[in-house]
Amino acid sequence: MKVRFAPSPTGLLHVGNGRTALINFLAARKLQGSVVLRIDDTDRERSKSEYEQAILEDLDWLQVGHDLMVRQSERVQHHRAAAELLKSRGLLYPAYETAEELERRRKRALALKRPPIYDRAALKLSAVERAAQEAQGRQPHWRFKLSHRKVSWHDLIRGDVEIDTAHLSDPVLIRADGSFLYTLPSVVDDIDLAITHIIRGEDHVTNTAVQIEIFAALGQELPAFAHFPLLVGSGGEALSKRLGSLSLRQMREEGIEAPALFAYLARIGTSEPVALAGREDLIAGFDFAKIGRAPAHFDPAELAGLSARLLHGLDYEAVRLRLHALGVGGGDDFWQAVRTNLTRFADVIDLWRIVEGPVVPSIEDAELARLAIQCLPEGPVSENTWSQWTLDLAARSGRKGRQLFRPLRLALTGLEHGPELKKLLPLIGRDKVVARLEGKSV
Ligand code: GLU
Fold this sequence. Notes:
By secondary structure, this protein is α/β, with parallel strands linked by helices.
């Protein structure tokens, strides 16, 4: 088995592209196959090396690996050779219509309630007529001559699919400037790289009918096809790659943990519930048969919740270097005290400030604060200090519950809410506890 993920470097990867990459990756790892990362950079104007770099970084972050990378721009001679072969077989023909002419014909067809399909006028041009067009300086674009037969395949997700190519326009494979559109290079590269499974979104189903005809025209065997329903927004709207907030990049910046996104994308739209499963389990559990036929709804809140739950369960060893990189100390004790309070990892910075200071204490009740200093048990502060201390303080002040804990928290942290004080207290340490109760910013 050999699969490919084929992003165009014309923008950042969005969550839908990430899912395509992931489904290919899971399928390949499950079935001992390999993954080709194919950079679809035939559109020279819109393709940018920064985007290619970003694609590599984002896939690396998501931990979706590949075994080989190719760029379509470096394979143009193969695309040209295939085009020549199609021309020699009479299956690729020159057409001279301008975009305006085609648009006019399209509108006329629609007005007459006919399907707006290219009428193959160019196919009827004589050699003399073609020469006349070129004498006027018109460069042709090139169309593939569809068979106008029914193309069928057994899709690994959709089951039996049949498309009548008589209902399609002959696709343009080469623009008037000689550059290739996506359709032919994709087939040529899939052939040359011996791709066995083409796994992509169902927006490519019609392309598949065309591409199957091109495989046949080039005398090649077909790979298997699997088309999954697209991810849509909560209102059912398409996710466009230009929506910045849905880019993998943005998600990373917003603090989504990559393994949570990996798990989310592996299960969304399948018969199994979205859950914090590990990579190996997700690979082992992959099956085309589990991918549903309905569009999968992408829910950012569900993803954020999954990401937070992932953080809550991480051991100190898993985050040691990340804490260090953010200048956060406190070791395992600090991590255990705060991890379940995190929504995003970067929240540790503010929580560490509670320990390190300076905290601007909020003293609501100076009398209670004075009493608290008096009640603080002698000696170093430990995890047991809190319960002894607050029992004693409750007895001496006559306060309990919120009446007692809220002013203490405000004095010690300057905040209304936060991690368990019992665990924070030893980290803050006796001197700072006393100073904050005295109203000092330390
Ligand atoms: N570059 C194409 C896309 O991003 C690839 C489609 C395919 O998988 O063949 O839509």
